[in-house]
Structure formats: C-alpha cells, structure tokens
Amino acid sequence: MGVKTTLTCKDLAPYFKATRLIPTLHGTSDSVYIVDDMYILKLFESVTCKEVEAEVKLLKVCDSLPVARIVREPFVVKGKPALLYEKAKGEVLAHASHAHIAQIGAFLRHFHAIARHHHSDTPPRFTQTILHEMIKKSGYTPFMNRFHTLSLELRNDGIIHGDLFIDNATFEADTLSCVFDFSHSCTGDFLFDLAVVALSWCQTQEEKKVLLKSYQSSISLERFEAYIAFAGLYYSGRRYLEQRDFNDLWRKVG
After folding, report:
1. Which of 145, 146, 198, 214 has its CA 20 to 30 A from that of 139?
2. Which CATH superfamily groups domain 9-86?
C-alpha cells in the first residue's frame, strides 16, 4: 500500500495553494494525501476522468447522507484525474460493534433508496462473468471450485458502492461521520453491496442478523450467505491477482 505517484505542493500550485502534503497508507489502488490537515487529495491511478465525474455526480445526489464532501471540481495532475475532499471527522474502526453495524446498514438502506433512481455510466464491475474471468486469470483451482458451488443470479438494482469495507467509513464518538471511496461505484445488486459490508464488518452470525435488520431486508440469513460467498470470492480473487494477502477473506468463504 502507499502512494504510487509522488506529488509536491508545487505540483498542486496551478489548482490551489497547499503548504503541507502528507502521503498516507489509505487505499490500495490510488495515491492518497492529507493536505494541510484539512483536506484529502486522491489521485486516481487506474480509472478514467469519466469515472471520476461519475463519482462526483453520485456524491452530489447523496449530499443528504454522511458521504465525502468534494471541495473542488476534478482536475488533472501528472496526467491523472484527482479530487480534493474535506477531511472527514472521526476515525476508522478497528472493530465494529452492533451499534456500528446497525448504523452502516441503515446508511446503505438510505443510499440505495436514492441510488435506485439514478443511472451510472460506469459499466458493472461485479458480475458472474467478470468474476469467472478473474478466477480463470488467477489459475487458482480452489477459487474455481468455489465458484462452481455458487447458485446466484445478480440483479442490476441501481448504483452500488461496491467497496464498503470497514476502512471506508469513519465514526466520531461512535456515530457514523463519513462514508467514502466511491470510486468502484457502478450499477449492481444491492444485496451484493450489503454482502461486502457483512464480509468486512461482521464476524458472527448474530452481527449479520443485526446488519440485515438495520437494512430492513427480509432475505433469510441462509440465502444471504450466498451473496457473502460471492463477495468474498470476488475480493479474494482480486487480492490474489494484486499479490496482496487474501487469506482473511478466503477463510470466511473458502
């Protein structure tokens, strides 16, 4: 992890004045800096300007929710699109309590209520076909064996976050203060989105029940496990291809 593109305050001078730039370890795909302890600068390493514009559009329609606040319109630094956000209050959780899980479940319910009425120009990222191609590319037999056990038809319900792991939200005094990193948002299945949360935030069956209750879903826990398995297999495969540790996720679904 860590920044992939080195930036200085001088690089940002054409866009805004910055006196202090601190590289962070947040994120695995993009370069992230803290600017003057007030803002977060994200340099997108692998997405297009069009996809960044899609994130901006989505955050604007969700401004009634605790989501990342964009300070200025997208700009390009060293040939790569960038966004400047307000620095969120609070801290990332090391472990989620029932109260934290209930809040993130309620957030996702409200987010989906808004997102179902909007279209994403970003192609779906989380489909059976994409997962199958990813697994074939990995050449890892246990992934393929697990894939063939899945019985799931994903829907296109509306725009999903797609990557709401526990380190993509902050809490201040145990209250959800911000959800961020919408760079993987696209059209997808709302239950897959919820399953990503379960995969990262929930360690027990009881915690999964808390999540489903706060989301107000009527799906059975047994059926929901199939979505969690799909999410776990997807992110295990992705981490495998990125040569990152995938065992913590794979143990949950393998």
Report:
1. 198
2. Phosphorylase Kinase; domain 1 (3.30.200.20)
Fold for domain 98-253? Aminoglycoside 3'-phosphotransferase; Chain: A, domain 2 (3.90.1200)
Give φ, ψ of 131 to 5 degrees.
Answer: -60, -45
pLDDT tens readout for residues 24-36: 876 678 999 999 9
Q: How many CB atoms lie within 10 A of CB 40?
A: 20
A 10 A CB-CB count for 113 gives 12
156-210 per-position pLDDT tens digit? 999 999 999 999 999 999 999 999 999 889 999 999 999 999 999 999 999 999 9
Question: CATH 3.30.200.20 occupies which residues in the chain?
Answer: 9-86
CA dist., res. 82 & res. 60, Å (int)? 17
pLDDT-derived band at 149, boundaries 50, 70, 90: very high
**Are 98 and 176 within 8 A, CB to CB?**
no
Taken in order 180, 167, 3, 137, the sign of the CA dihedral is negative
Neighbours of 176 (CB within 10 A): 20
On the 0-12 / 13-18 / 19+ scale of CB atoms within 10 A, 10 is exposed
The residue with tokens 């609070």 is 90
45-65 pLDDT, tens per residue?
A: 988 999 999 999 999 999 999
Predicted TM-score (pTM) of this structure: 0.95
Considering the chain, what is the average pLDDT of its residues? 95
Tell me: pLDDT of 1 over 60: no
For residue 169, list its beta bridge partners.
179
The predicted pLDDT at position 243 comes to: 93
- Give the residues across from 81 on adjacent strands: 76
